[in-house]
Amino acid sequence: MRQTNWLTFLKDRVRVENEKTAARLHFLIEQSYGMLGYFPVKVPVLPVKKRAEFILQHL
Predict the structure, then answer these.
(1) How many domains in the chain?
(2) Residue 18 lies in domain
(3) How much is the mean pLDDT over the chain?
(4) pLDDT by residue (tens digit) across 14-58?
(5) How far apart are CA 52 and CA 4, in angstroms?
(6) Is the CB of residue 11 less than 8 Å from the CB of residue 18?
């Protein structure tokens, strides 16, 4: 379930779940979107400019 291209996991005032719970939530949200017929494109971890180019290519 753990992706290798995730950003570094950091807990803060807003993100209170641990890494295992966050990964499970991610899986469940992704699964729910699929069940509803949506298949979001995963934006890879890249420098900002390349990430923006990736997004523009997938609009």
Answers:
(1) 1
(2) 1-59
(3) 86
(4) 888 888 998 899 999 999 999 999 998 889 888 999 999 999 999
(5) 20
(6) yes
Whole-number pLDDT of residue 49: 96
How far is 35 from 4, CA to CA, in rounded Å?
Answer: 24
How many Å separate Cα 36 from the centre of its chain? 18
Inter-residue contact 15 to 7 (CB < 8 Å):
no
Under the banding of pLDDT at 50, 70 and 90, the label for residue 5 is low
53 Rama sector, left if φ>0, alpha if ψ -120 to 50, beta otherwise: alpha
State how far the Cα of 15 lies from the Cα of 17, in Å rounded to an integer: 6
Q: Running DSSP on this structure, what letter comes out for residue 42?
A: P
